[in-house]
Amino acid sequence: MCPVLGHLDGRFESADAEAEHRIAVLYQEFGGPLLRHVRKSTGNDLQWAEDVVQETIVRAWRNSARLQWEPSLIWAWLLTVARRIVIDGRRRRSARPQEVEPPEVDMMSVPDGSERALSAMVVADALRSLSEEHREVIEQTYLRDRTISEAAEILGIPPGTVKSRLYYGIRALRELLRDKGVAG
Amino acid sequence: MHDEVAAYVLGVLDEDDHEAFERHLDTCERCQAELVALAELPDQLDELRHASSTSDDDPPMSMSH
After folding, report:
1. What are the pLDDT digits (tens) for A153-170?
2. Which residues of A touch B13 (CB under 8 A)?
3. Predicted ipTM?
């Protein structure tokens, strides 16, 4: 039985058998890889990661036309949907007082800690190689969980300029990391 | 619209722009191809969060040399 169905508490009571089948197939096909990916961005918080995967699968089911896409595009889209859900969750969490210590301490002591530190160094080096304009928009948006308009206000530049610098900055970063054999 | 693909991949578009871009993505093959190319890059940037200081007050990474 697909685990997502049990968790949704009858949300799909009215859905027909075909819809249930499709969501089960989605979960089977993408659930595992997605969970492994999402866990990395929830700091190994498994419960949070499982919630994110469920929400992602539900959104995919609601946008079933996109499931006609090539598998590589479906995967890219699912990763992006999941990331957005994680970021929204992180923004909500940081808006209220911390209930527990952030998990970063544990992250540094897990067995792959040195491997992680190494790839973090490679990424940090690549980021430093970018122009100041490109680097600062990446830092002021993604790395601080800020939206385009929030970053635009802080940087004192129009939102369109933030988007455009992000585009060229991210492409440049990808080229740098690909040259170093890190990016796919 | 095309250059919003980077902000979309990073999940930092404001809500209205995010929804508009999702609709754009349905028909834009160029943005679809760029989404595939960029989709895993944010995971690499996440390495910096994990490697950063444990204090919430500090920036995600230090750019000082």
Report:
1. 999 999 999 999 999 999
2. 147-148
3. 0.80
Look-up of token digits 């590589």 = A72
Of the three residues A64, A95, A126, the one that is the final residue of a domain is A95
Q: Of the given ranges (A14-28, A119-133, B5-19), which has the lowest mean pLDDT?
A: A14-28
**How many domains, chain A?**
2
The arithmetic mean of pLDDT across residues A104-130, rounded, is 70
Check CB contact under 8 Å for B43 and A41: yes
- Does residue A4 have a pLDDT over 60? no
Q: Is the model more confident about A162 or about A184?
A: A162
Report if residue A39 sits inside a domain: yes
Chain B residue with minimal CA distance to A74? Answer: B36
- Which one of B12, B14, B32 has the shortest CB-CB distance to A142? B12
Q: Is B65 exposed, middle or buried (0-12, 13-18, 19+ CB in 10 A)?
A: exposed
| Same-domain check for residues A73 and A152 | no
Q: Which residues contact A72 (CB under 8 A, 6 or more apart)?
A: B36
- Considering the domain architecture, whether residues A85 and A31 belong to the same structural domain is answered as yes
CATH number at A20 reads 1.10.1740
Angle, vertex CA A47, rays to CA A150 and CA A72, nearest 5: 70
Considering only CB atoms, B44 lies closest to which of A83, A105, A183, namely A183
